[in-house]
Amino acid sequence: MTLWLNAGIIFTLLAIVVILFKWGNVKCIGVTPVRLFTFIAILFTSGLDVGLIMFPLTEFGGYANIAANPEYAFTNPIAIEFGYWGFLIWGFYFLTCFYFCVVEPKVKFFEIPLVKFINNVVIIGTCAFTAFLLLSNLPWYLPAIGDGESIIPIFYFIVFAAICFAVYSSTDIKYVRLLSISTTWLFIALIGFMWAGAFLGSDSQIAAFTHNLELIGSYFGNIEHFVLPLNEYHEFYLFWWFAWSIMIGQFTSRFVGGLRTYQVLGAMLIFPSIPIAVWFSVIYQYHEAGIPTTGLKNFAMAFVGIVFVINSLDSLIRLYTDNLNLTVKRFGRFKYIAMNVVMLSLLTLLFKFEFLQIQWVGALVIGLFFSCAFFMLYRKPKTVKNIDSSPEDNEIDFTKIDSGP
Predict the structure, then answer these.
(1) Which range among 41-45, 353-357, 372-376 shows the weakest confidence by mean pLDDT?
(2) Which SS3 state, helix, strand or coil, does residue 28 take?
(3) Of 195, 243, 256, 313, which residue is 20 to 30 A from 98 by alpha carbon distance?
């Protein structure tokens, strides 16, 4: 699996270089273009989930324990955390976003029946994994409910409610912008709330926060260490990013609003990384200073994390239902909601009983990457060579998102 993962990462980075060289100045226009802030909000809230909010507090200690994990000795824990979540790995999303916005409409690889089937298996499987991840971590996120270890009925209800909310919001395209922008501002408010709890009352509050940001800067000085997996845990993260990349690229490609290719890459690497860096700088202080997060802080983080999950599920549900023509228009709102809620709930339980693993999904996505490249080189070389723009039918009309389901 490690060799397969390494091959996928190297292929992805080389593909990005080729894209910039050949299509770096192409104007990218999706079928439902939106303005830059909305695009970044959709990207950020759809491309992340509850793990961003809560995982770091459980991981900083492990990254600091270089006696048990000597592979982390080259830098500090917060830089490693950022390396697992920020900057370079957002290039995975760029590759698929550009492909589905500019190349796929001409190549049509994902319209091949077998490929279409595998693609939607990936999307549905990762959708269920997202819900499972929330379910499995709720005892830690909300220790005030239950014993802090066991999954009790109320946690199943919370996940079920999140699935229901996401399925309902996926019934109309207009909810995408509202949900994404609202979640973005909610996350910013959470950062402010947690910042106050970590730094207010300290004589050196600004200095401590700035110091944490400077620690993250070590990531850029050691970026080469994060290209290939450091250990099995890093492998898990990278497979997770691959699993998400193909569907987040499909989804976000719809909303690109006229940016040049190099600008899309810059936007996807830089803009999501800024709030991630700020967030990590805040919660790292809780770890370093031993500040408890019990009570309101835990509830606030869990609430925002659940909203992130709803955003992610919304985008994934919208994607596979469109791909498979399981739409509201075809089935009606009630049947559409019931069908998706039942299916995702059952698949979430399959992950809980370990019948599925996200690493398998990530490995399957890497296989799709290689298959797509082979298909273009041997079946569509002239078509690819002649691509010089987004589809002609795609126009910059920022009102499209307000019309139609």
Answers:
(1) 353-357
(2) strand
(3) 313
